[in-house]
Amino acid sequence: MRKFLIERTVPGIQNMPESDRRKVWAKSNAVLAELAPDLQWAHSYVTDDKLYCVYYTSDPELIREHARRGGFPCDSIMPIDDIVDPTRAG
User: Fold this and answer.
1) Each residue of 4-55: pLDDT tens digit?
2) What does the alpha-carbon distance between residue 73 and residue 27 come to, in Å, rounded to a whole number?
3) pLDDT tens-place string over residues 42-78
4) Domains present along the chain, CATH in parentheses
């Protein structure tokens, strides 16, 4: 499976109460269970009005299907080709 970065615009996500966020994550997990093992969620970053999510799949169309079934936005899907950090600097 390949790793992908998904960008989602969710206005107000940074100010959403944790209880409401958990409902979103639970819905995501329920849909992922239907699509498993072909789609796996690694983690997400919450920033301002965006979510940046890292997923594993061999078929990026499953990411779109997850968004459709869950009612989530899916602004872009980008394959992650490499991960760089300070340990690779020298």
Assistant:
1) 999 999 999 999 999 999 999 999 999 999 999 999 999 999 998 999 999 9
2) 13
3) 999 999 899 999 999 999 999 999 999 999 999 999 9
4) 2-82 (3.30.70.3090)
Nearby residues of 9 by Cβ (< 8 Å), 6 or more positions away: 49, 50, 73, 75
Task: Look at the pTM and tell me if it is higher than 0.85.
Answer: yes
Instruction: Cis check for the bond before 37: say yes or no (omega within 30 of 0).
Output: yes
Strand ranges across the sheet with 39-47:
39-47, 50-57, 2-9, 76-79
Longest dimension (CA), the chain: 45
Q: Compute the distance between CA of residue 77 and CA of residue 43 in angstroms, rounded to an integer.
A: 15
